[in-house]
Amino acid sequence: MDRRSFLARAAVLAAGPFAGVACAGARGGAVPVTGDGPRGGYGRLRPVRDLADGEVRLHLPEGFRYRSFGAAGERLPGGGVVPGSHDGMAAFRGPRDTAILVRNHEVGGPVSAFGDPDLAYDRMAGGGAFTLRVTREGEVLKSRPSLSGTLRNCSGGPMPWGAWISCEETVDGPDVAGAGNDRLTRKHGYVFEVPLKGAASGRPIRAAGRFAHESAAFDPATGTLYLTEDNYHHPSGFYRYVAPEHPMRAGRLLDGGKLQMLAVKGEPRADLSVGHRTGGTFATTWVDIEEPDPALPAGTSRAQAGKAVGGQGRAAGAAVFARLEGAVHHRGTIYFVSTQGGDAAPDDDPPDGFGDGRGQVWAYETWSGTLRLVYQSPRAAALDLPDNVTVSGRGTLVLCEDGDGDNYLRGLTRNGEIFDFCRLEPIPGDPGAEFAGTTFGPGGHTLYVNVQAERGRTIAIWGPWARGAF
Question: Does this model's pTM top 0.85?
Answer without folding.
Answer: yes
